[in-house]
User: Which sequence fits this backbone?
C-alpha cells in the first residue's frame, strides 16, 4: 500500500476510534459500543503509536509535513522518488539530495531527543512520582520537541519547493495526489 495512503488510513482509523493523537493534549474516553470495538480501538491506537515511533527512529516525518505536501510544498524524499517523472536536472537532484540528507540528520537528532523526553515522562508515572509541576514541565518539553521535529520536516518542504519549477510542482502534485485519488487537504479550496 502507498505509504501516504497508509498514513492517511492510520490517522482515519485512529481518529474514528474515539481517540485523539497524544500530542494534541487531549485524550477522550469515548466508550465503544462493544468489547470487540474497544479492543479494535485500542489495537489501532497502539499500532499507530508503534508506527509513529518507528518512523521517528528512522528520521521520517510520518505525516508531520503532510499539510505542506498536500498544498504544493513537496518534501525532498518524495521529490527524489519522482526524479524521472519530474525531469530533475543534475543540479536539482544534487541540491535535493543535500536537502534530504540535512533534513534526515536533523530529524534523527531531534527525534532521538523527543523519544527520550517521552520515555522520561513515562518513567515519571511508572515510578509513581507524577508531581504536577514536574509533569507540566516535562509535558511542555515533549510538546516543544515535537514542534521542533515537525519544523525540521516543514522547513525542508519550504526549501524543496524553491528548487522546483512551476511545471515540476504541477507534475509532482499529479503523481502524488491525482494518480492516487487522495483527497485534498483539510480546508483546501478546490
Assistant:
Amino acid at each position: 500500500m502507498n505509504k501516504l495512503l497508509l498514513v492517511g488510513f492510520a490517522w482515519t482509523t485512529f481518529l474514528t476510534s474515539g481517540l485523539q493523537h497524544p500530542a494534541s493534549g487531549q485524550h477522550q474516553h469515548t466508550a465503544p459500543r462493544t468489547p470487540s470495538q474497544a479492543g479494535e480501538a485500542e489495537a489501532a491506537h497502539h499500532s499507530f503509536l508503534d508506527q509513529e515511533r518507528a518512523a521517528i527512529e528512522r528520521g521520517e516525518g510520518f505525516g508531520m509535513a503532510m499539510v505542506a505536501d498536500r498544498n504544493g510544498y513537496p518534501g525532498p524524499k518524495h521529490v527524489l522518488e519522482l526524479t524521472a517523472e519530474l525531469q530533475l536536472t543534475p543540479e536539482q537532484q544534487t541540491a535535493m539530495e543535500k536537502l534530504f540528507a540535512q533534513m534526515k540528520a536533523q530529524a534523527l537528532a531531534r527525534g532521538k531527543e523527543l523519544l527520550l523526553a517521552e520515555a522520561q515522562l513515562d518513567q515519571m508515572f511508572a515510578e509513581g512520582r507524577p508531581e504536577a509541576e514536574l509533569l507540566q514541565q516535562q509535558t511542555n518539553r515533549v510538546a516543544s520537541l515535537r514542534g521542533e521535529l515537525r519544523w525540521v520536516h516543514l522547513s525542508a518542504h519550504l526549501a524543496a519547493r524553491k528548487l522546483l519549477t512551476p511545471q515540476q510542482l504541477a507534475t509532482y502534485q499529479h503523481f502524488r495526489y491525482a494518480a492516487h485519488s487522495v483527497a485534498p487537504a483539510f480546508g483546501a479550496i478546490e
Summary: The longest helix spans residues 90-126. Helices lie at 3-16, 35-57, 66-69, 76-81, 83-86, 90-126, 132-162, 166-176. Residues 58-180 form one domain. Residues 1-27, 183-190 have pLDDT under 50 and may be disordered.
